[in-house]
Design brief:
Elements lengths: L1 E5 L8 E4 L14 E2 L3 H9 L4 E5 L12 H13 L13 H28 L6 H17 L3 H6 L7 H19 L4 H12 L10 H4 L7 H21 L4 H9 L20 H15 L11 H11 L6 H11 L7 E4 L3 E7 L9 E7 L4 E9 H7 L5 E4 L14
Antiparallel strand pairs: 1-4, 2-3, 2-4, 5-6, 5-9, 6-7, 7-8
């Protein structure tokens, strides 16, 4: 049985099923391990891990601990409460129209971003006019429709992760900043900062950056240098505002001081840095990497909420979840009726009841002629089509972007 325990409940003899630390790393070369000695327990304490999951069939049981299912259910209940009805003033065709424009923008932006990062790797100056142009175009797309660009940028392959992740973080920062009522200049600043937040990774050896497995402690220390390298590059080769550079300098800092490189706490971390931390983690969790499969957006939001107990700004996390929706555009969901569908619009009754385009029959395991189900309307006459879970697109050979 998998259980969730607090750090003060960890004792020698438990078998760690999941360190539950994500981006924070942990001191072992494997993700699942039995803690045989008190020294093993002390290692975990040094890394600021607050909670973790244990397997009671492979190690000691902790009687008072909830099961993973109970813990997930409690978290999901809290996350669902953040689902607020949203007025939809856009025309129904607006998303599909912006999707067409966003696809062209992404193709050009990927090419430009890859070239910019390649130049930095070679020691060349950053072409800031190109950065500004990308951010300006992405801002325009987000203003047209907040979901089109963000939904498309969530689709990325492991080999293009580094530069597409930078575009996704920039677009999400722009979108979220608008929701937070940032002014036009602040939106531009955080968009530029988001695009360049990982620029220091161009100075990290490729064998570490693209390693298909957990990093050793030494390798992780090298990986962490990308923050200070990025800070140095931006300060030495650009005239960027300090607010932009804070996105790079602070996006791995954590409110309780367990982040890096400076171990800043609370308000020592800039607002831009706190926003970027949430966005960066969300996109990383919901993306395929060379060493892991992607989480569904739904699961990634639940994990971020879980980590907002101390690592992240809880108020900003709640606003972020309400902004992107419990089931973001492009999420593949399983319905109680047995259909598999793609979320294509936010529901007027709240994000728990979005508009879905059914594309597969899960019972007969075959594609169907797509049709639209508005779960908000359906809920008024019954719960036949309620969402019961999320699905991996590759499992059903579905490309969600084809159905927007």
């Amino acid at each position: 049985m998998i259980k969730k325990i607090r750090i003060d409940q960890v004792v020698a003899g438990v078998y760690v099923h999941d360190f539950n630390c994500g981006w924070l790393h942990h001191p072992f070369l494997v993700n699942r391990i039995k803690l045989n000695t008190d020294k093993d327990v002390e290692k975990i304490l040094k890394y600021g891990i607050r909670e973790l999951y244990i397997d009671t069939e492979k190690g000691l049981d902790i009687d008072a601990a909830p099961t993973k299912q109970e813990a997930d259910s409690e978290i999901q209940t809290e996350v669902d409460q953040l689902s607020m009805p949203t007025a939809n003033s856009e025309q129904p065709s607006r998303l599909s129209e912006e999707i067409t424009r966003a696809k062209k923008l992404i193709t050009e932006a990927k090419r430009t971003t890859q070239r910019l990062m390649g130049d930095v790797k070679l020691g060349k100056q950053i072409e800031m006019h190109q950065v500004e142009k990308i951010v300006e175009q992405m801002t325009e797309s987000v203003l047209n429709n907040k979901d089109a660009l963000v939904s498309l940028l969530r689709i990325k392959t492991a080999d293009e992760y580094t530069y597409t992740h930078s575009l996704a973080v920039s677009a999400l920062c722009i979108s979220f900043a608008r929701q937070l009522d940032f002014d036009a200049d602040q939106i531009r600043q955080i968009g530029v900062g988001g695009l360049l937040h990982d620029i220091g990774k161009m100075k990290v050896p490729g064998e570490i950056l693209n390693k298909p497995g957990p990093l050793t402690e030494k390798e992780f220390e090298i990986m962490k240098t990308h923050v200070k390298e990025g800070d140095r590059i931006l300060n030495e080769s650009t005239n960027l505002d300090a607010a932009c550079i804070c996105v790079t300098a602070h996006h791995h800092e954590r409110l309780d001081g367990t982040g890096y490189p400076e171990g800043l706490k609370g308000d020592q971390i800039s607002l831009f840095g706190q926003v970027a931390a949430i966005v960066d983690i969300y996109d990383a969790l919901s993306s395929e990497r060379c060493y892991k499969v992607a989480m569904s957006p739904h699961a990634a939001l639940r994990k971020i909420f879980e980590w907002s107990q101390g690592y992240l700004n809880r108020n900003l996390v709640e606003k972020f979840i309400a902004h992107v929706g419990i089931y973001p555009i492009g999420t593949l969901v399983r319905l109680k009726s047995g259909y598999i569908g793609v979320v294509i619009d936010h529901g007027e009754k709240g994000s728990l009841t979005p508009v879905v385009r059914a594309v597969c029959d899960a019972v007969q395991r075959r594609p169907i002629k797509p049709f639209v189900i508005d779960l908000g309307i359906q809920r008024q006459i019954g719960n036949e089509h309620d969402i019961v879970g999320c699905e991996a697109p590759e499992k059903w050979h579905v490309k969600p972007e084809q159905y927007f």
